[in-house]
């Protein structure tokens, strides 16, 4: 295969995170989100390295000491001063492509999900990390607006995505479905695009990123959010999405193995009461493990069990993400995996 968007289960060098500063939208929750990120770093560092962009040198010094006190090996954490607007590395981080056997990172335009939020620093973060020497492979700047959370790759030229995001005029106005599919083929070698027309989460700012709804676990398996509460306002759209997933076929014509994920009890913002986008689909695959968001809900255990069945041989690690959804994302949204060969070795 000449070109492919690497799947998340491809061997990884590291996971990239973006640490929040006191002036960010996380300010009222800074201690809580930092505790969540620390738990993620400790968990990930058991398996591979972590690359963290930080807002200033004081934060870099503090975190170096903090992770040392938590027992994280120094060689497993790279801290780089590179201020950002927000923490959602999934959407401002680079996308890894294998092109004729060579690894390359693609740097797309990030506009804060169609201009909803400031994103100028986020949009230049990959270039600044490149200038800092953290990447070991070439980085290609792309002119299109695209976020990592909008795409699910099976690693074999099939892409799963949503119409609500990739065809939204707030991203690449003037590009119709055929034009979008053409550039997905050009950039990623994609020959099949599986479009979901239904599915959304209240409180989601991304225009229905697929990583909140349905995820490839392997080329033949898709885990997805299923709402079993007919009185819930999400029920009609998620039931329609489930029907779409059941109708999808693999390249060989067989149906996908579908792994339904439970529906957590509604979570609401404690300040103004709006509903928060809690989803178990926002898990992260790393070397030898899967990190799964939990919400202090009775459905947490069922979600962990379902994903254990979808990922035999991998450790299943719960991460409390109640604080994360306060800013309308979850665990996967905070991360971007860097495949083997993409992170420069530390001298």
The helical percent reads 25-40%
Which structural class do you get from the secondary structure elements? alpha/beta
How much beta, percentage-wise? Answer: 25-35%
Largest sheet: 4 strands, mixed
Strand order of the largest sheet: 1-5-6-7
CATH class, named: Alpha Beta
The CATH superfamily appears as L-arginine/glycine Amidinotransferase, Chain A
In terms of per-residue confidence, which ranges show pLDDT below 50 for 5 or more consecutive residues? Answer: none
- Rough outline: globular
Q: What is the rounded Rg?
A: 19 Å
Protein name: Agmatine deiminase family protein
Keywords: Hydrolase
Pfam family, one: PAD_porph
InterPro entries: Peptidyl-Arg-deiminase_porph
Descriptive account of the structure:
- The chain has nine helices and 19 strands.
- The chain has helices spanning 30-45, 57-69, 89-92, 112-115, 120-131, 163-166, 177-188, 235-247, 300-310, and strands spanning 3-5, 12-18, 49-54, 77-81, 95-99, 102-109, 139-145, 152-153, 158-162, 192-196, 214-218, 221-225, 257-261, 267-268, 275-276, 284-286, 289-294, 315-320, 336-339.
- Strands 1-5-6-7 form a four-stranded mixed sheet, with helices on one face.
- Helix 1 (30-45) links the parallel strand 2 and strand 3.
- The longest helix is centred in the N-terminal third of the chain and has 16 residues, at 30-45.
Which properties best describe this structure?
347 residues; alpha/beta; four-stranded mixed β-sheet; 9 helices; 19 strands; 26% helix
């Amino acid at each position: 295969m000449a070109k492919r968007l690497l799947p998340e289960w491809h061997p990884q060098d590291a996971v990239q995170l973006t640490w929040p500063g006191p002036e960010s939208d996380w300010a009222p929750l800074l201690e809580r989100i930092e505790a969540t990120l620390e738990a993620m770093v400790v968990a990930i560092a058991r398996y591979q390295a972590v690359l963290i962009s930080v807002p200033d040198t004081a934060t870099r010094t503090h975190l170096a000491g903090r992770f040392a006190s938590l027992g994280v090996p120094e060689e497993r954490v790279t801290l780089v001063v590179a201020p950002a607007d927000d923490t959602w590395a999934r959407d401002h981080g680079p996308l890894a492509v294998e092109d004729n056997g060579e690894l390359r990172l693609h740097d797309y335009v990030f506009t804060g999900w169609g201009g909803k939020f400031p994103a100028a620093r986020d949009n230049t973060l990959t270039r600044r990390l490149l200038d800092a020497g953290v990447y070991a492979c070439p980085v290609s700047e792309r002119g299109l607006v695209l976020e990592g959370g909008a795409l699910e790759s099976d690693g074999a030229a099939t892409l799963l995505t949503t119409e609500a995001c990739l065809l939204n005029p707030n991203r690449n106005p003037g590009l119709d479905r055929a034009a979008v599919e053409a550039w997905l083929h050009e950039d990623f070698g994609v020959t099949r695009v599986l479009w979901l027309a239904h599915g959304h989460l209240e409180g989601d700012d991304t225009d229905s990123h697929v990583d909140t709804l349905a995820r490839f676990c392997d080329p033949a398996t898709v885990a997805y959010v299923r709402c079993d509460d007919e009185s819930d306002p999400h029920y009609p759209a998620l039931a329609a999405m489930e029907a779409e997933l059941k109708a999808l076929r693999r390249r060989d014509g067989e149906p996908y193995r579908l792994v339904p994920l439970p529906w957590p009890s509604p979570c609401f913002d404690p300040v103004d009461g709006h509903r928060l986008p809690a989803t178990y689909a926002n898990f992260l695959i790393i070397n030898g493990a899967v990190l799964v968001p939990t919400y202090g809900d009775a459905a947490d255990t069922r979600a962990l069990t379902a994903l254990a069945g979808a990922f035999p041989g991998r450790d299943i690690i719960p991460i409390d993400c109640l604080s994360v959804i306060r800013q309308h994302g979850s665990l996967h949204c905070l991360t971007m995996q860097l495949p083997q060969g993409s992170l420069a070795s530390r001298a």
